[in-house]
Amino acid sequence: MLPDTAGTAVSVSFLHLEHKDIKLNLISTYETVADCKPTKKLVSWAIRRFQAKIQAIIIRIRSKPSRSLQHIRIPRHAEDAAADEAPFKKIPTMHVLGIKNFDPQLVWLGPVISATSVLSQKASPMANNKMSRPRKPGRLSVYLYIPNIIGYTRVFMNCYAFAICFSNKWLFCALYFISFVCDGVDGWCARKFNQVSTFGAVLDMVTDRISTACLLVILSQVYRPGMVFLSLLALDIASHWLQMYSTFLLGKVSHKDVKDSTNWLFKAYYGNRMFMAYCCVACEVLYITLFLLAQNDSEKLMDVLKSSITEGSPISVLVGLSVFGWAIKQLVNVIQMKTAADICVLHDINRKERP
Amino acid sequence: MSGVEYLINLFCCSVSTFGAVLDMVTDRISTACLLVILSQVYRPGMVFLSLLALDIGSHWLQMYSTFLLGKASHKDVKDSTNWLFKAYYGNRMFMAYCCVGCEVLYISLFLLVQNETEKLMDVLKASITEGSLVSVLVVLSLFGWAIKQLVNIIQMKTAADVCVLHDINKKERP
Fold first, then answer.
1. Closest Cβ–Cβ partner in B18, B64, B164 for A143
2. Inter-chain contact B40–A230, Cβ cutoff 8 Å?
3. What is the C-alpha to C-alpha distance for residues B167 and A138, in angstroms, rounded to an integer?
4. Which regions span the lipid bilayer (chain A) (predicted)?
5. Nearest CB to B167; choose among A199, A217, A347
């Protein structure tokens, strides 16, 4: 092993030498070269080279089993204790090596390995803090997953879109729609690249809720009565909040897993992914279309709806098609709220029963 | 009202999950609707939209991380090292002042509205120079509001870290 460039970690080696009943666990230290001063770097490099040579020797010994080792039995408890403790200790325990009973070829290994481990620990103080386990993915790497980066892009796109929503309606609608499409894309990416993360799911959900909320806020500004959209906002937030709460209480993975539900509408909605997608898309399309249809600063909602149905333009066709999906989604939201509330109450009742 | 609920809970000794969720949801929706109204009458409206987004986002993430950690309430942050957290959650009076200050600020801003659209900075400046009761309330509550929003932002970051660490730990334990 040659020394890596400063800042990179040296590889971990975890050698199991199994010969019949003997296990020899060799753990080399896990160190980062960047933590050492130049002279210490040199020393630890030299030690690692030496350890590399030892490991090469062990591999050679392993390939030709010695007759004298066949009769050696390490007591069960010692072997188990060694197997349990060894991964967490930097110096291999002497009883694992069984100095007295070992083949002469291996006898010298014990003190040498201990010595090199101690020396390398002294050379690089940081080695004490690092365990010989495979490095776990850092937090930053999860934040930089591809689906999460798509999530951040969605957030920025939404921020920009809402900043320009009154000055450039069409750009706002385009950005909002792209962000909505990215919602599905990042889930697909997560599954494809095996980068599914809890943080990604939460980011997805929160971005959805906030973008829908902001769109409803804008609609409540331009349409009269504004209370209609305020109530839709309240229903959206409340139903999704309660759904998430009840999902956690039940220990389900996602609130979309409603296999044991008896309600026919639930089964139709959640059972058929295409229907669910249609309802969700229709909801967003209706809101965007209503925003595009608003010509003045304040419009009467019923007038706009009536005129759009009697008109024949593509936008009004969109409105007509999406009203049905929107209605189903709101109905499902209401039922979901009731179901989730029931789950909260039942959770308490069951908890009181089990003392 | 949630103070009254808290007192009732204290005396009746019956804490229910549904009650806690109802409490939280009602809080969020009422604050959201108030911010919606403020964003209609004040310019720029983006300020209040961003506050709405911050409020919903931070409380959502807090709740998620509370569940992942298995804590009873997101207000039980005993093991936090951040000094602001300790000050905020450790001292219930300070936390109450910040929450109340936030709501009082929003209500006062709404009461200060004379026309159909106002410029936010003008109203704030006028309220500081004026001496009326409402403007005094605005000045007193600004500090509490600022602290609460700061805590919201930090809480969002902490909760995101909890989600990420939960995944990392789950991968380690096969």
1. B164
2. no
3. 11
4. 169-189, 274-294, 314-332
5. A199
Give the pLDDT confidence score for residue B152 in this predicted structure: 92
Tokens of A108: 């010298």
Ramachandran sector of residue B133 (left: φ over 0; alpha: ψ -120 to 50; beta: rest): alpha
Q: For A248-264, how does the pLDDT look when each residue is reduced to its tens digit (9 = 90+)?
A: 888 754 555 444 556 67
By DSSP bridging, strand B42-43 and strand A22-27 are unpaired
Nearest residue of A to residue B42 by CA position?
A: A221
The per-residue pLDDT for A235 is 94
**And the tokens for A39?**
């002279």
> What are the start-end ranges of the H helices in chain B?
2-12, 17-41, 46-69, 83-90, 92-111, 120-129, 133-172
Q: What is the reported pLDDT for B11?
A: 56
**Does B44 sit behind a cis peptide bond, omega within 30 degrees of 0 on the bond before it?**
yes
A221 to chain B, any CB pair closer than 8 A? The answer is: yes
Burial bucket for residue A79 (CB in 10 Å: 0-12, 13-18, 19+): middle
User: For chain A, where are the E strands, in sequence order?
Assistant: 14-19, 22-27, 223-224, 299-300
> Which of B23, B27, B76, B122 is an active site residue?
B27
pLDDT at res. B68: 83
Q: What is the pLDDT of residues A226-236, one digit of tens each?
A: 889 999 999 99
Decide: pTM greater than 0.80. no
Residues of B in contact with A220 (CB under 8 A): 36, 40
Strands A22-27 vs A14-19: parallel, antiparallel or unpaired: antiparallel
What domains, with CATH codes, occur in chain A? Answer: 9-132 (no CATH), 139-353 (1.20.120)
- The whole-number pLDDT of residue B34 equals 92
